[in-house]
Amino acid sequence: MQKKILIVDFGSQTTQLIGRRLRDLNTYCEIVPYNKLPHSLDDIAGIILSGSPFSVYDPKAFRVELSQLRGKLPLLGICYGAQSLVNQAGGKVEPSPSREYGSARLNIVDKNDPLLKNLSSTHTVWMSHGDTITEVPPTFRIIASTDSVTHAAFRIDNEQTWGVQFHPEAYHSEEGTELLKNFAEITGILGEWTAEKYIENTVAELKRTLGNDKVLMALSGGVDSSVAAVLLHKAIGNQLTCIFVDHGLLRYNEAKQVVEDYRGLGLNIIPVDASMVFYNALAGVTDPEQKRKIIGKLFIETFDAEAKKISNVKWLGQGTIYPDVIESLNITGMVIKSHHNVGGLPEKMQLKLVEPLRTLFKDEVRRIGKQLGIPSHLIDRHPFPGPGLGIRILGEITKEKVEILQKADDIYISNLRKDGLYNEVWQAGAILLPIRSVGVMGDERTYEYTLALRAVRSVDAMSADWVHLPYEFLAKVSNEIINKVKGINRVVYDISSKPPATIEWE
Q1: Nearest in space to 359 (alpha carbons), one of 8, 9, 12, 23
Q2: Confidence class of residue 328 from pLDDT cuts 50, 70 and 90?
Q3: What residues act catalytically?
Q4: In sequence order, what are the residues at sequence separation of 6 or more whose Cβ sits closer than 8 angstroms to the Cβ of residue 122?
Q5: pTM of this prediction?
Q6: Residue 304 pLDDT > 90, yes or no?
Q7: Which of 101, 165, 379, 497 could form a disulfide bond with 369, CB atoms 3.0-4.6 angstroms apart?
Q8: CB of 295 within 8 A of CB of 331?
C-alpha cells in the first residue's frame, strides 16, 4: 500500500505548492477538499492543513473537526490550519492590527524540535494572514516567533501536532522546503515515492481493478494520453484498444507520425480521419467557447461511433493529470477553468473511467514515461491543447487557415529544435490572428494574415512566464515564415505571462 501525506485544502491559492514541494522531495501526497476527507486513515502517513481565504470566525469558513485527527498521526497546520487548531482547542485568534503580508524574520525558540531540525536560528519566512494567534491553550508550546508574531510556530505536547502561521511552501520562505522535509521525515515516508514504485503500484492496481475487462482510450499524440496508454497496456495488454481521431487540427504531418509511434510501442490503435467532418461543423464559427464545444462534442461522437464497433467494453481510459483535477475543483465556489478530461462523460456511453495519471503533475508524467521507455520525442514534446489548432486560429476555422498555420508552426518548432531551444521552452506554438495588414513583397502590395509566436516556461501550467528567445532567432523565424508561407506577411511575439494572461489565446 502506497502511504501518503494528505493535504487538506481550505481554499488557499498556495495549496498546490505544498504538494509540489513534497513531490519534489520524492514524497507521495494528495490534495483533498476539506469536505471530502477519506473515511479511513489506513494509507495516510500524515496530514497537512492548508491556508484559507477565510477567518476561523467567519460564518462561511471551511471547517473540519480536528479533534478527530489530532494524536492519530503527524499533523501540520499552515496559517489558517494552525489558527484552526488553536481556535478549536479553546485558544484565541484575533484580527491583526494590520494585515501581516510579506517577509518576516523567524527566530527559532526550540532548536531541538524535529520540525525545525537543521533550520537556521534566524531566517526569512513568508506571512499572509489577516488574523493572528494571540493566546494558545496550556498544552501548546511555542517553538518559533517573529518580531511581531509571538506564536509563529507551536507544537502540542504529547502529540505529533504542529502549527505554523507562515507559509513554508512559498518561494519566499528561505528554508520552507527543509521544514516540509522534516515533516515528511516525521511521517516516515520521506523519499519513498519514485517513478519505479509508482509504475509498480499503478500497474498492480490497474490489474486488480480491471481484471479481464476491455478498455477503450482516445489518443491525441500528447504526453499525458501516451503515458496513460502505455501504463494501461503494461497492465492489461491487448484488452486496451486505442482510437486516434484526426480532427484535422493537429500540427504538420503529426497524425501520420503519431500512428507510427503508437504502433511502435505495441499499442492496438485504430486511426480515424475525420478532418473534413470537423471543418464543416466549424464553418462560420468564431466564438472560442463555441469552437471548443463543437470540437469536444464532435470528437466524442466520432469516438463513440468507432467505439460501438467494439463489443463488451466497460472502461474508458483518460490522460487526466493533477492540474486538470485541481483547477476543476469547486472548493471556494469558483472554478478556474473547465477541462475536457474532468467535465464528465456522456451517459449514453455507459463506461466507467480509469485515469492512471490523475494524481501526477506534468513533469512527473514525463518522468514516468521515460521510466516506461517511451521515446523522448513523445515524452519531451510540448503540451498541446485538446482542440488543437482550433484554438490557435482566432476567428473562423477553414482548411486553408489550418494549412497556413501548420506550415508556419512547423517552421517555428523546427527552428527551436535546430537551435537547441526546444527543451528550454515548456510550451511553444504559433497563433494565426484574424488580422490582415498591408505588406510589400518584391514590388507587390500584400494584404495577409498576422502570426503570433508564443513560448513560455512553466512547471505544471498553474503559472507561466514568457521566454526571452534571442532576437536573432526570432528574426530568422519571422523571415522564414514570411518568405515560405503564403498568406502571412507579419510576425509578432507574445510577451504576456500567466497570470494575468493564459498560455493559450482562446
Answers
A1: 23
A2: low
A3: 79, 167, 169
A4: 105, 106, 107, 108
A5: 0.73
A6: no
A7: 379
A8: no
Q: Where does residue 38 rank: exposed (0-12), middle (13-18), buried (19+ CB within 10 A)?
A: exposed
Q: Give the strand order in the sheet containing 269-273.
A: 269-273, 240-246, 214-219, 313-317, 352-354
Bridge partners of 445, per DSSP, are 440
Q: How many residues does the chain have?
A: 506
Assign 333 a pLDDT band (cuts: 50, 70, 90): very low
> How many CB atoms are located within 10 Å of the residue 88 CB?
16
Per-residue pLDDT reduced to its tens digit, 45-102: 999 999 998 899 888 889 999 988 999 999 999 999 999 999 999 999 988 765 567 7
The CA distance from 455 to 430, in Å, is 9
Q: DSSP of 227-247, one letter per residue?
A: HHHHHHHHHHGGGEEEEEEE-
The C-alpha cell that represents 79 in the structure block: 496559517
Q: Name residue 107's beta-bridge partners.
A: 122, 145
Is residue 452 within 8 Å of residue 501, measured between CB atoms? Answer: no
In sequence order, what are the residues at sequence separation of 6 or more whose Cβ sits closer than 8 angstroms to the Cβ of residue 79? 12, 50, 51, 52, 128, 129, 164, 165, 166, 167
- Which residues touch 281 (CB under 8 Å, ≥6 apart)? 294, 298
The answer on pLDDT for 341 being more than 60 is no
**Per-residue pLDDT tens over the stretch 456-506:** 998 767 688 999 999 999 999 999 999 999 999 999 999 999 888 888 998
Given a contact cutoff of 8 angstroms between Cβ atoms, the answer to whether 491 and 482 are in contact is: yes
Cβ atoms 28, 4 nearer than 8 A: yes
Residue located via cell numbers 486516434: 244
Tell me which of 237-246, 300-309, 394-403 is least confident: 300-309
The Cα–Cα gap between 439 and 436 comes to 9
Looking at 329-398, list the stretches that DSSP marks H as alpha helix, in order from N- to C-terminal side.
362-371, 376-379
Element (H, E) at 257: helix 254-264
In terms of DSSP bridges, do strands 92-108 and 140-145 run parallel, antiparallel, or are they unpaired? Answer: antiparallel
Terminal-to-terminal C-alpha distance of the chain: 42
Region for 370 from its dihedrals, namely left if φ exceeds 0, alpha if ψ lies in -120 to 50, beta otherwise = alpha
pLDDT digits (tens, 9 = 90+) for 384-426: 888 899 999 999 999 999 999 999 999 999 999 999 999 999 9
Residues 6 or more apart whose CB falls under 8 angstroms from that of 183 comprise: 5, 46, 48, 74, 76, 115, 162
Are 154 and 82 in contact by the 8 Å Cβ rule? The answer is yes
